[in-house]
Amino acid sequence: MGLSWLSTLCYSLPFGNGPPSTLYKVLELGGPSNFPIAIIWNSWVLPKVSFFAWEATWSKVLTLDLVRKRGWSMENKCFLCHEEQESIDHVLIHCDKTRFAWHILFSLFGVSWVLPSSMRELLLSWHGSFVGRKRKKVWQAIPLCLLWTIWKERNNRALDNKELSVQGIELIFSCNLWAWSKLFIVSGLSSIVNFVDWLGAL
User: Fold this and answer.
1) Can you give the residue ranges of the Reverse transcriptase zinc-binding domain (predicted)?
2) How far apart are alpha carbons 23 and 3 in whole angstroms?
3) I need a labelling partner for 188 at 20 to 30 A (CA). Which of 4, 44, 70, 129 fits?
4) For residues 116 and 164, is the Cβ–Cβ distance under 8 A?
5) Residue 33 gets which letter from DSSP?
6) In this structure, are residues 36 and 120 in contact, taking their beta carbons and an 8 Å threshold?
7) Highest mean pLDDT pick, 1-10, 102-111, 156-165, 172-181
């Protein structure tokens, strides 16, 4: 028996063998309007990054606050700022180091934006109506790329005791976004400098 109801649902829906995001719209409690499906599950982002963003939006990424809830006795202090308690929203949005990275990103695009309080709100409010079609694809990949870069830096500090400056994090982010863009979105941007200039023209 098990998942027979799910198989029936999958084959009876009009989208047939469509992407997981389409089925997710049907299964997600509260309806698709309450969850940033389009930003998370898009073809311009690596699947492992999409899955990370999905977990982060549900606050299921294993940060120190969740480790403590599971019964482990350890100090809860953010690996990035070493000041506040660690949660997924703190690490990816509210940490001073992270906020600085977001503000550098916004200044590149000439965008003035107050960061929302949660991952879900951040991704739900991420729009790109002011950019062209190719650049919009890049714009939609930007938050997941930065979130992934920040999380990788957090893990480097937590597990390997290696630390980058905020400028170093921004450089890694730019290189990652450039690599994704060349792979999935646009060709002909021969250098990271050309790519950043192209982004600045958004």
Assistant:
1) 22-102
2) 14
3) 129
4) no
5) G
6) yes
7) 156-165
- For the ranges 30-44, 99-113, 116-130, the lowest mean pLDDT is seen at 30-44
Q: Which of 39, 46, 38, 123 is nearest to 89 (CA)?
A: 123
Nearest in space to 105 (alpha carbons), one of 134, 139, 129, 77? 139
**CA-wise closest residue to 95 among 82, 105, 104, 108:** 82
Sign of CA dihedral 159, 163, 168, 169: positive
- Residue 153 vs residues 15, 30, 70, 101: alpha-carbon distances, Å: 38, 33, 24, 12
Tens of pLDDT along 60-92? Answer: 999 999 999 988 888 899 999 999 999 999 999
Q: Contact, 124 vs 169, CB < 8 A?
A: no
Gap between the Cα atoms of 29 and 178, Å rounded: 35
Alpha-carbon Rg for the chain, nearest whole angstrom, is 18
Residues 6+ apart with CB under 8 A from 66: 59, 60
Give the Cα separation of 40 and 61 in Å (integer). 15
Handedness of CA 99, 101, 58, 158 (dihedral sign): negative
Enter the DSSP assignment of 86: P
